[in-house]
Amino acid sequence: MLVMASERTSSSVRRRPVKRDAVADRWLLLIMVAAALAVASSFFNPAAFEPKSQRARQMTMAEARASNAEVPIVTKARVTAAPYRFRGGPAERAQAVDCLATAALYEVGDDPRGQRAVIQVILNRARAPGFPKTICGVVYQGFDRTSGCQFSFTCDGSIRRRTKHFGWSAARRNATRALAGRVFADVGRATHYHADWMVPYWRDTMIKVAKVDTHLFYVRG
Questions:
Q1: pLDDT tens track of the chain, all 221 residues?
Q2: Please, is 73 exposed, middle or buried when counting C-beta atoms within 10 Å of its C-beta (0-12, 13-18, 19+)?
Q3: Helices H, strands E: what count in the chain?
Q4: Which run of H or E residues covers position 210?
Q5: Is 42 helix (H, G, I), strand (E, B) or coil?
Q6: What DSSP assignment string belongs to 102-145?
């Protein structure tokens, strides 16, 4: 009997580590599943990969306007751009005019100064590092990505709607003159702009050089 009791005791001692190992294995499996779910959820949430500095600030229109008003316009940083020299044949020029006019019309409507400002920004980008080298390339940069377009009308569905005729003639005229060398000095060499009722993530990394109606214009710092 003592031998049997001893055997039972020895057997139970040998089995205890097995039970502890099984419990540990189950906890490890649960941790691995939780980690896998966390990784998977991040793939379905693209915002998780965005730097905090690039996430849109949640502000009302009034708050955004007040915030933007606190940022001074640095006039000494507003350097007049050189006349744009278009290189291309008649067909390429006609296409560039259409791209410029479309962007100007969709971005600011029929406002003549606003149109000239937007057109100047596009020309400035075409000559700046980090942007496409053609006018239409600048206008439609990132149009195939819902969050990557440079001009909102190219990816928010506006481009699929019929172009407004009111202001179209003026937009084409302003585009043609800009390609012929006319410069809109009021925005200098600005490569970025936004409406005053929003605060883009990049605002504080750039220098504000102008305001045209409700749009603010910036150069790189």
A1: 333 333 343 444 444 444 455 655 665 665 565 555 444 443 334 333 334 444 445 889 999 999 999 999 999 999 999 999 999 999 999 999 999 999 999 899 889 999 999 999 999 999 999 999 999 999 988 776 655 677 766 676 666 655 556 788 999 999 999 999 999 999 999 999 999 999 999 999 999 999 999 999 999 98
A2: middle
A3: 6, 3
A4: strand 206-212
A5: helix
A6: HHHHHHHTT-HHHHHHHHHHHHHHHTSTTS-SSHHHHHTTTTTS
C-alpha span between 155 and 103 (Å, rounded): 12
- Amino acid, single-letter form, for residue 1: M
Query: Which pair of tokens denotes residue 210?
Result: 């102008």
Task: With CA atoms as reference, report the closest residue to 115 among 126, 96, 102.
Answer: 102
Tokens representing residue 80 in the block: 């007049």
Return all residues near 98 (Cβ < 8 A) that are at least 6 apart: 172, 175
